[in-house]
Amino acid sequence: MTETGIIRDIKENSIIVAHDAGSACFGCMNHECRNKKLFFAADNPKDLPLKIGQTVEVKASTVLAPGQAIMAFLIPILGFISGFILCRFLFPEAGEGAFAFTGVIFLFAASFVVFRIRKKRPPKEFPRYIERILE
Predict the structure, then answer these.
(1) Closest CA relative to residue 61, chosen from 42, 47, 40
(2) Same domain, 13 and 59
């Protein structure tokens, strides 16, 4: 994920960036950021010459993305599979429609469980780093 922002503060090798209200990120298409002043921290591993007020492009690290994808996709899919197999095991005379319906119910149940877990324990914020200076 790439975002654009303006440097507001520099502390050693990390900076505080204000989200650029003119640019829309893919996540909310600027719907959430329009009325809020959002700030986030970013690192400068490339040792770019940074100054307060510069516009920079910030990229989020993708290290945590596979874990979030597993929570978002794999667990509900496993819920569907387990519901399908459980119905087939408990009611072998039922038709394929009943197996699929039970799988869909388990899919939604697993999705709800993932939703509740993420509400109680939100995922860690992705580490961000400066990709390049735009101005």
Answers:
(1) 42
(2) yes
The larger pLDDT score, comparing residue 89 to residue 31, is at 89
My answer on whether 70 and 53 are in the same domain is no
Residue 14 amino acid letter: S
Domain limits at 89?
Answer: 65-120
Model pTM above 0.70: no
Q: Lowest mean pLDDT: which of 1-5, 14-18, 23-27, 128-132?
A: 23-27
